[in-house]
Design brief:
With 217 residues, the protein is an alpha/beta fold. Helix content is 57%, strand content 10%. Helix 2 runs parallel beside helix 4, helix 4 runs parallel beside helix 5 and helix 6 packs across helix 7. The structure holds CO-5-methoxybenzimidazolylcobamide.
């Protein structure tokens, strides 16, 4: 299948929530030589954004949101490992502890951020979703990461980013904290005392490099 047709098909499978077909289309796209990041940015993600907008306007319902999210997850299961093919020739710029904050189960953006960080050579420990502040503290003490990354997709869970930062600071743990997620803004990051904010996965890598003093910082 040619590139434009594949991109259209990627969009369609997520928009229509065709969970099983999503992995197949992702495999076809990679086999045809398409870049995994292009597959996500130009094919799958715009469809998920549209479903999200339509859900927000009451034109789509929860089952459709769930199906689109599932289809995206299947596509990511195929493209993610290729995105994350780490550059082993470089010394690792550091360890990143990544998670979606408590109360929030959105994980797609965080996984993409994690994959690109791995591709940039970072060691990524992904704590998953709905991660309490206490867990961030415990795992930071245990793993001594250079950077903690907090993702939040809901206006109601953004506040948990502040909570994690407070818990870390109150415990006297000094670690850089990066925040991101659709509702998060640079001013919010500043207000809660985060060390940096990244709008998307590529800028998260640039920021992580800067905060950890890694290559290209
Ligand atoms: Co939800 N959801 N959702 N959802 N969902 C949103 C976020 C929403 C905007 C949709 C809408 O109404 N228009 C809305 C939030 C409204 C608000 O808070 N103002 C919403 C809602 C309301 C809900 C529920 C409450 C719905 C309900 O139950 N009634 C519920 C909440 C569940 C919970 O968390 N407790 C819910 C559930 C779900 C699903 C489970 C069905 C599913 C998630 C599946 C999954 O992740 N496994 C889902 C989905 C898919 C979405 C949308 C459609 C897509 C999110 C996504 O994956 N985007 C979303 C609408 C939207 O965002 N347009 C929506 C693609 C992803 C690549 O982008 O996550 O933004 P994003 O990540 C980007 C950047 O933000 C950034 O880089 C990423 C890559 O470029 N980034 C970081 C993200 N994290 C970062 C961390 C960093 C740095 C950058 O550093 C650490």
């Amino acid at each position: 299948m040619e590139r434009d047709k594949l991109l259209e098909e990627m969009y369609r499978v997520v928009y229509d929530g065709e969970v099983d077909r999503a992995a197949l289309v992702a495999e076809q796209a990679l086999a045809s030589g398409l870049d995994p990041l292009d597959c996500l940015k130009l094919g799958f993600m715009p469809a998920l954004e549209r479903v999200g907008e339509e859900f927000g306007r009451g034109e789509k319902f929860l089952p459709e949101l769930v199906a689109a999210g599932e289809a995206m997850q299947r596509a990511l299961a195929v493209t993610g490992p290729q995105l994350a093919a780490a550059r082993r020739d470089l010394p690792t710029p550091g360890r990143v502890l990544l998670g979606t904050v408590e109360g929030d189960i959105h994980e797609i953006g965080k996984r993409i951020v994690g994959s690109l960080l791995m591709a940039a050579g970072f060691e990524v420990v992904d704590l998953g979703v709905d991660v309490p502040a206490r867990t961030f503290l415990e795992r930071t003490r245990e793993l001594q990461p250079s950077l903690v990354g907090l993702s939040a997709l809901l206006t109601t869970t953004m506040v948990r980013q502040r909570e994690v930062i407070e818990v870390l600071r109150q415990a006297g743990v000094r670690v850089q904290v990066m925040v991101g997620g659709a509702p998060v803004t640079p001013s919010w990051a500043e207000e809660i005392g985060a060390d940096g904010y990244a709008e998307d996965a590529s800028s998260a890598v640039a920021l992580a490099r800067r905060l950890t003093g890694g290559p290209g910082s």
